[in-house]
Write a structure and sequence with these properties.
Elements lengths: L1 E7 L1 H10 L3 E3 L7 E4 L2 E9 L3 E5 L2 E16 L2 E2 L2 E2 L4 E5 L7 E13 L5 E12 L4 E2 L4 E2 L1 H24 L4 H11 L3 E2 L5 E3 L2 E6 L3 E3 L2 E10 L2 E3 L14 E3 L6 E10 H12 L3 E4 L2 E12 L5 E9 L3 E7 L2 E3 L4 E3 L4 E2 L17 H10 L2 E2 H14 L3 E4 L2 E17 L3 E16 L6
Parallel strand pairs: 1-32, 16-20, 19-21
Antiparallel strand pairs: 1-18, 2-4, 3-4, 4-6, 5-6, 6-9, 6-10, 7-8, 10-11, 12-13, 14-15, 15-19, 16-18, 17-18, 21-32, 22-23, 23-24, 24-25, 25-28, 26-27, 27-29, 30-31, 31-32
């Protein structure tokens, strides 16, 4: 199953914005910084707000900025200045500050233990208008850009530290515990996922949200038993790369006959038919397993006449039409506890044919009737800050085996689900 995941990173963006200095200045500003015996300079860079983007695990951070530079030149002999300093500048006084564009890149990756790592560095620093101090024919732009790049790289190192300190265990522990327990499926019993592998696709970013697809391989089990006989508390190691979306859960389900009783009663209750003026309405159905893949139906009815009828037959699943029928349904005349108050005329072919027609279950109709209860399990808060949102689209039965003690069914449930993480985990 593949689940699109959305992570709202507004708090992280605000934190990144707050730790990055609004201005980058040369050492000792506003005093000059000595570059060599015959040259000194100073600069100030003022940045704009960050613009983030992320495509396939690579985050790009763009910022526009303005800078000003002042430089001085002298003549040196044997390491000593022997002439007055000659000054020049760009972006001071009435002259507008020069423009520069800066881009950082950061490569994201998740480790097998679900920790996030990043490698952030300056990709390019591009001066839009270079500063040429013409009074001594010296272009100081390169030196200043190198200094700005070094300061930006230091900011990138701090970002990597913040990312490394993110702790996802507060989120993953509850998810692992819930995935290791049985999940109620309404009428259909309880499902345990039994996750065997977790994968993650490329990370992309839009607006204030990181988006990626998480893939989970599992061996789901469905049963009517709600007891967790074994519980796993941890998710499998994380691997990379996953494709597609949506989920298709194929599971072998085991239902005891008590659950089958409840399911059939809810499905067939109040179905009625008329024979020779007698109106019969089904009130309750109970099922018992027999030899030879057969079952016994105990049907309690009301209407013009009241009573209990015992039938037996072999349930059959027509996979293409998703119809459950009992084509060989017959009266169970050998039952020692048979109770009839309709009289002997009840034992005729007409009423038996009516019962055969009524003893049909359309799996899709049954699924649609219970769809909301199933979908409710895909729309809930898993833990604080994590919400699952989704829906199912189809339930199909692939096979049916009748045993004396239970009924085994293989079913496939398909649908879509999204996971929304609204808080970035802290330390």
């Amino acid at each position: 199953m593949n689940i699109p995941v959305k992570v709202v990173i507004t708090p992280f963006l605000k934190q990144a914005e707050s730790i990055a200095p609004k201005e980058i200045r040369s050492d000792g500003w506003p005093e000059y910084m000595i570059s060599s015996c015959d040259f000194r300079y100073k600069y100030r860079f003022v940045r704009s707000t960050f613009q983030f983007s992320c495509i396939n695990n690579r985050i790009s951070v763009a910022m526009n900025g303005n800078y000003q530079i002042a430089g001085s030149k002298t003549v040196c002999v044997m390491g000593q200045s022997v002439s007055p300093w000659i000054n020049g500048s760009c972006g001071f006084g009435n002259e507008p500050m020069r423009k520069v564009n800066i881009n950082l890149i950061s490569d994201l990756r998740f480790t097998p233990d679900y920790r996030l790592q990043s490698t952030t560095r300056t990709e390019k620093v591009v001066p839009i208008d270079k500063c040429l101090v013409t009074i001594f024919n010296n272009d100081v732009t390169t030196e200043v850009m190198d200094s700005i790049a070094a300061s930006v790289n230091l900011f990138g190192t701090n970002i990597d530290k913040i990312v490394k300190e993110m702790n996802f265990s507060n989120y993953l522990t509850p998810i692992g515990e819930k995935a290791g327990k049985k999940i109620p499926l309404g009428t259909y019993g309880f499902m345990k996922l039994n996750a065997s592998a977790v994968r993650m696709g490329p990370i992309n970013f839009s607006a204030d949200t990181l988006r990626f697809t998480a893939g989970v391989s599992c061996y789901p089990e469905i049963s009517s038993d709600s007891i967790n006989h074994s519980v796993t508390k941890h998710l499998p190691p994380l691997t990379n790369n996953t494709t597609g979306d949506g989920f298709a859960l194929t599971s072998n389900a085991i239902y005891d006959y008590k659950t089958i009783d409840s399911l059939l009663t809810r499905t067939l209750r109040d179905r009625s038919f008329e024979v020779k003026g007698e109106k019969i309405r089904i009130e309750k159905v109970q099922v018992k397993g027999l030899e030879g893949y057969m079952v016994e139906f105990k049907i309690t009815f009301t209407g013009t006449k009241r009573g209990t009828l015992f039938l037996k037959g072999t349930p059959d699943l027509e996979v293409s039409t998703q119809q459950l029928t009992v084509p060989d349904l017959e009266y169970d005349l050998n039952s020692s506890s048979i109770v009839l108050v309709l009289g002997k005329t009840f034992f005729n072919r007409q009423i038996l044919e009516n019962l055969r027609k009524q003893a049909k279950i359309n799996v899709n109709e049954l699924y649609l009737k219970n769809k909301q209860k199933i979908d409710d399990q895909f729309n809930r808060e898993i833990t604080t800050g994590i919400r699952l949102k989704g829906n199912t689209s189809e339930l199909r039965l692939n096979g049916l085996i009748i045993n004396r003690d239970n009924v085994q069914v293989q079913a496939t449930l398909t649908g879509n689900a999204d996971l929304l993480i609204s808080n970035i985990p802290g330390r």
